[in-house]
Amino acid sequence: MDPVPWREAWHEALYAVSRGFYVTRGGPAAHFTTAAHGATGARLARALLALPDHPVRVVVDVGAGRGELATHLVDAMDPTSPGGTRTPQTTRVVAVDVVDRPAGLDRRVEWLRSPGGAGLPPELTGLSDALVIAHEWLDVVPCTVAEVDADGTAREVLVDPDTGAESLGAPLSGQDRQWADAHWPTTSPGDRIEVGRARDEAWTDLVSRVDSGTLVAVDYGHTATGRPAGGTLTAYANGQLTTPVPDGSCDLTAHVAVDTLDADVVRPQREALQALGLTGATPPHALAGADPLAYLAGLEHASTEAQLLHRDGFGGFWWAVKRVRGHDVT
């Protein structure tokens, strides 16, 4: 097969109806564990719900996988659940992903099917008093990949969709070149650039659909002071890192240039969660004698928080937070 730009092959490999990885090979949970799953997902949901400084009528989970985080969110809002604080009757939870509604998904979660990549459902618009969460969404919005040639020119990287073999195409031009010059300038031969323009535009589109509320992108990322010279494009399959081949057999992902997103605050997850009260601190040892069950529960709670805060794990994610102030936000 003739080589094509990585961005095109990447999109087909993940989202094509007949062979896309996310469409035909199960959700992310079938291949790796994210912070949205299990006990960490439950604690993360409660932290995210504490982020807005306004009433929340609707919570939207973009890139929802098979609804794992959305389920934790409805549980966290159910006053009959442990730690629940809100009622599902007043706050909707809407999950958005590229497949039909998963079988067995909690009935309290609404579902919208998206086109995949940067595409969003047309009915996802006009959101008021919203909390919109894009958890590991932008890293799978395909972007232009470039490499600097021997003469110092950044050229678009082409790839054979069947084998993953790469070659260099034409020099970056137009808006991709402008983005690279502004945000990822390099002339060192062999350096890679993952042009974040597609992610910026996807995020801007999502923000435009909110009339009032808070949006947060949670993702692997980097800022201008730490752009990775070799790029970050990689792949996962069956829980293991693997060679990126855009043939539909593996998940393809690249970190996000989080500082180029339209956001009010950009900071590591560990700092964002600490500001929301997570500490990872173990309970006092004296509690073990006074109330052993409470001590064990406290240890489990501390362990979960510690996983979310660990700087070399989930705590190394980035949060980009955008607040949209509408007339109905108080």
Automatic annotation (TrEMBL):
The entry's keywords: Methyltransferase, Transferase
Keyword Transferase applies: yes
Pfam families reported in the protein's UniProt record: Methyltransf_28
Record's protein name: SAM-dependent MidA family methyltransferase
Organism: Terrabacter tumescens
